[in-house]
Amino acid sequence: MSDKSTIKLNGREYDFAPGETVLDVAARHDIYIPTLCHDPRLDAVGACRTCLVEIDGWRRLAPACATQLEPGMEIASENERIDRHRQTLLSLYMTDHPTDPAAAEPGAPNELHAMASHYEAPMDWGYMESLRDARPDDRNPYVLFEPDLCILCARCTRYCDEIEGVNAITLAGRASETTISTVDKLSLMDTSCELCGGCIDVCPTGAMGKKMPLVRGDKPERELDKVRTTCNFCGVGCQLDLNVDRDARDGQGRIVKVTSPPVGTTTNDGNLCVKGRFAYDFVHHEDRITTPLIRGEDGELHPASWDEALQAAASGLLAVKDKHGKDSLGFVSSSRCTMEENFLVQKMSRAVFGTNNVHQCAAT
Questions:
Q1: Rounded Cα distance, 133 and 126, in Å
Q2: Which one of 3.40.640.10, 3.30.450.20, 2.40.10.10, 3.10.20.740 gives the CATH number of domain 6-78?
Q3: Quick one: CATH architecture of 93-210?
Q4: Rounded Cα distance, 149 and 185, in Å
Q5: Least confidently predicted of 65-79, 88-102, 316-330
Q6: Is 59 exposed, middle or buried (0-12, 13-18, 19+ CB in 10 A)?
């Protein structure tokens, strides 16, 4: 083998860094290798076997996600042998999996279905009823487990262990009865689960789904518009994607789901807490104030324009300052504001009104 830190992948030479895997180099150069159990945030386990590649001189196919590169390796990610393996493997996966797309994709897109279609996996091997069981009495309000859709890739249990560190769910049972479970099959509400929804985010088949409604009407999720924004529940500043059904609410649009941005693209690396992922229903709540209100001489609140509201607020603050002095004022901002907005609040307090009485509830 050559001493150079290069390998050949599908006949082309690529550099690699120590510790990188076949999948790392392939992903960096946009070479598609299918995976079902892989997530870049998790330790590679090579469990799903969909990413097997052929390495010159190796008798068996090797998992691309778990095989570290060595100089001089010659690797093929596509050939007749590999395609035959993937077709057979995906057909086996589909034998106890819903074949009807409507049943297989109740919310999130089903990566197994898409992969089986891509590789034209034979679907005439018959159907075997899944023996995996769920927790039908789980009273948690957010996470739904549909065992028929589970392929035991263990992404969810590994995420719960390696990223969240709470170990609320695990693989339980033996052989064909192996399933995703909790201690004594307790509700997630009675375990260490933080209801972060990470298990939902990493699931490739939608077996881990949301109990909250995902869509309105018959509009499938993949047609929703995604709007990138900053979560405002605390001062961390996690990025999230609001999934908006533009046809809902008389054409005005409605947020029907929150998802994580792709891993590695934001500071939160695709992770969200229970508030960021699930607490979005306040946006369309019927009691939400949607226009400025000014209290009139009758003591009641009346709708006003933003210019009128800002003028009323400024006049009121200046009147207090003139009557009682600048230090009679105090400004309290919110952790649900951005850093830039909080900066402006303290600038208004100090530079405009001349007082240092300013605070923000997330200050340390």
A1: 21
A2: 3.10.20.740
A3: 2-Layer Sandwich (3.30)
A4: 19
A5: 88-102
A6: exposed
Mean pLDDT of all residues belonging to the chain: 89
By the 8 A CB rule, do 206 and 107 touch?
yes
Which of 239, 246, 332, 231 lies closest to 282 in space, CA to CA?
Answer: 231
The phi and psi torsions of 323 (rounded to 5 degrees) equal -85, -40
In CATH terms, the superfamily for domain 221-284 is: ADC-like domains (2.20.25.90)
Q: Which amino acid does the sequence have at 22?
A: V
Vertex 332: Cα angle to 330 and 338 (nearest 5): 145
How far apart, in whole angstroms, are the C-alpha atoms of residue 284 and residue 228?
Answer: 18
User: 285-301 pLDDT, tens per residue?
Assistant: 888 898 999 999 999 99
Could you give the dihedral angle defined by the CA atoms of residues 151, 154, 159 and 161, in that order, rounded to the nearest 10 degrees? 150
Tell whether the model's pLDDT for residue 13 goes beyond 70. Answer: yes
Residue 249: predicted pLDDT: 65
Q: Where are the domains of the chain?
A: 6-78, 93-210, 221-284, 325-364
Concatenate the DSSP letters of all residues of 65-127 into one string.
TT-B--TT-EEESSSHHHHHHHHHHHHHHHTTS--SHHHH-SSS--HHHHHHHHTT----S--
